[in-house]
Amino acid sequence: MKIRVNNLKDTERIGKIIAGCLTKGTVICLDGHLGVGKTALTSFIAKELGVKEHVTSPTFTIIKEYQGKLPFYHMDVYRIESADSMYDLGYDEYIYSEGVTIIEWSDLIEEILPEERVNLRIIRISDDEREIKIDGKGYVFDKIAEELKNYENTVH
Ligand SMILES: Nc1ncnc2c1ncn2[C@@H]1O[C@H](COP(=O)(O)OP(=O)(O)OP(=O)(O)O)[C@@H](O)[C@H]1O
Ligand SMILES: [Mg+2]
Known about the structure:
Blueprint (H helix, E strand, L loop, with lengths): L1 E4 L2 H13 L6 E5 L6 H11 L14 E5 L3 E6 L8 H4 L2 H5 L4 E5 L12 E8 L5 E8 L1 H11 L4 E2 L1
Parallel strand pairs: 2-5, 2-6, 4-5
Antiparallel strand pairs: 1-7, 1-8, 3-4, 6-7
Helix pairs in contact: 1-2
The structure holds adenosine-5'-triphosphate (ATP) and magnesium ion.
């Protein structure tokens, strides 16, 4: 499924819809080129989940923890040396927790991603326009797909 967003406001709308579908234990994988809007989308999702703190990129710390309606874990694995080194940071405890986990640059740790997850890939069309490709497996993905079917800029 593909969604076309025309500007940051549209991205916020999509973030809200996605956030409304999340439950404890959800893992969202977020990929796309440098500066495409992964952290922007993450911050909109976090806001809708009730995270009051401003969500910023955890590039150097790899993992940042927030508290909203659910615990919210934001990972940016861009600088990870190997997928295996994620386990030293407590990766397993995060993804199999009662919280929601978002992983920027998940492609880099593909071999250790859980099977049940939501994959979001953002593609830059112009300064403000993006295409968001969505696929995945499991109940939360099915719910997101169902909700976004009705979104005006959805390409099936
Ligand atoms: N429709 C849009 N959706 C998301 N971001 C947008 C959009 N239009 C413009 N932008 C801008 O693009 C930039 C995206 O930066 P952001 O840090 O979110 O990217 P990123 O993919 O997380 O980068 P990195 O690869 O460094 O982690 C922001 O400055 C944001 O305002
Ligand atoms: Mg980022």
